[in-house]
Amino acid sequence: MRHDHVLTARQLSRGDVTEVLDHAAEIAADPGAYGDRHAGALLGLCFFEPSTRTKMSFEASIKRLGGDVVDMGSVESSSVKKGESLADTIRVIEGYADALVLRHPRQGSAKMASEFVDVPLLNAGDGAGHHPTQTLLDLYTIREAHGLDDLTIGIMGDLKYGRTVHSLAHALTNFDARQHFISPESLRLPRGVRYDLHEAGAQVREHTELEEVLPSLDVLYVTRIQRERFPDENEYRQVAGEYRIDEDTLAAARDDLAIMHPLPRVDEIAPEIDDTDHARYFQQAHNGVPVRMAILDLLLGGEQR
Amino acid sequence: MSERELRISKIENGTVIDHVPGGESLNVLAILGIDGTGGETVSIGMNVESDALGRKDVVKVEDRELSQAEVDVLSLIAPDATINIIREYDVVDKHRLDRPERVTGVLECPNHDCITSEDEPVETRFEVLDDGVRCVYCETIVREDITDHIAR
């Protein structure tokens, strides 16, 4: 990758994506061969919001490359609580680590932070903005299931605030993918994302009903609809119920439909789906490690590739 | 020399912004941060007949020249405007506006979740699109009422 930082999926070319996924596949095939690759390297974890899987998978990734982490800890126990700016915090932590991972509630925070540091910075989620390393592991999972070209994908749920959705939609414009967006009217894709997809010449359609497109899908990417997006409980329950996947829903789906979810799920995918061949979401989460190992290896500059 | 040009040349020092779309002159003042409290001497011609624009506004501000950031935002609402810099009654510089690639510092991002709405040491930056502007940090697009987002 010819980038100093990984900030958005918009910056990733087809070549970048392919390079990361190919390298991730090499690592997944022989993870032990990379155990000393970055011995002594330190990854700074700057999580201003709670995270379980993203944070743990970055930690696992750098450790499996022979490195370690330095962790800012929770915001409550850090200098941020005393009113320190993000720009100051990130410049201080830069001195402790060879690369930084940032999750922050504000959109554009990773972009801004990257302007203050010289070490590689990875955006692990900036509010409702982007989550590009999640996107790369999503693409890896899609490629495993179906390949990335001649793909018909449905992306369903909270498309307005779902940063994994925004990043994935951007990245898929590099490939021959037909993207169907399924959501309630109030949670449609934001204007900025629709603008980019249009500019990129993406094949995009928007729907309010899954039934319209389900039979044509290779992949269904489900996201959680969050209660706090709705003014009242009844409206939330009604909408959430309409976008729930269970065995009955899937009667109209192709046998090889792959169902993905960035997790955590609440009740948008019924547990009865977990043991079917459709379910890819746990494998998707596991893919976070080889994919993030590949990203870190490329950014930290291991041996010449 | 026409009467209008004569009128413009009567300013001793300052800036004349001509060929502003009719009715936009108050927004021009907003971009310049002029609300009357600063004591500037300002003259406005509003909805003056114009061969090119039909109706146009003219704004004359004495003892004031424009920053690049102000000119950049001005170009978004008055792309055909001309800027005349006056010193000692002479037009020392006259130029049209170039549509910039970016505008820095003058607009506020309307997205309250944008990092630029926090107390961080950065100026706002917007990429200029064909029909609006876009925050380079949070990627929010502003198309309508750009002048509502001028930082006060």
Report the CATH C-level class of the largest domain in chain A: Alpha Beta
Level-2 CATH architecture of the largest domain in chain B: 2-Layer Sandwich
N-to-C SSE string of chain A, H for helix and E for strand = HEHEHEHEHEHEHEEHEHH
Name of the CATH first level of the largest domain in chain B: Alpha Beta
Strand arrangement in the largest pleated sheet of chain A: 7-6-5-8-9
Question: Structural class of the secondary structure composition of chain A?
Answer: alpha/beta
Report the span from N to C terminus of chain B: 38 Å
- How much beta of chain B, percentage-wise? 35-45%
Description:
The complex is a heterodimer of chains A (305) and B (152). Chain A has 305 residues and is an alpha/beta fold. Chain A folds into two domains: 14-130 and 288-300, 3-Layer(aba) Sandwich (Rossmann fold); 133-285, Aspartate/ornithine carbamoyltransferase (Rossmann fold). Chain A is 34% helix and 15% strand. Chain A has helices spanning 14-29, 53-64, 86-94, 109-114, 132-145, 163-172, 191-199, 233-242, 281-286, 288-300, and strands at 42-47, 68-71, 99-104, 121-126, 151-156, 177-182, 203-207, 219-222, 258-260. A five-stranded parallel sheet of chain A has the order 7-6-5-8-9. In chain A, helix 2 (53-64) links the parallel strand 1 and strand 2. The mean pLDDT of chain A is 93. Helices cover 16% and strands 36% of the residues of chain B. Chain B has a five-stranded antiparallel sheet with strand order 2-3-1-4-5, covered by helices on one side. In chain B, strands 6-7-8-9 form a four-stranded antiparallel sheet, with helices on one face. Chain B starts with a helix and ends in a 10-residue tail after the last strand. Chain B is globular. In chain B, strand 2 and strand 3 (54-62) form a beta hairpin. Chain B has 152 residues and is of the alpha+beta class. Chain B folds into two domains: 3-96, 2-Layer Sandwich (Alpha-Beta Plaits); 102-149, Aspartate carbamoyltransferase regulatory subunit, C-terminal domain (SH3 type barrels). Chain B has helices at residues 3-9, 25-31, 68-77, and strands spanning 13-21, 42-50, 54-62, 82-87, 90-96, 102-104, 125-129, 132-135, 141-142. The A-B interface holds A 8, 85-87, 104-109, 111-112, 115, 126-129, 191-192, 195 and B 111, 113-122, 129, 134-141.
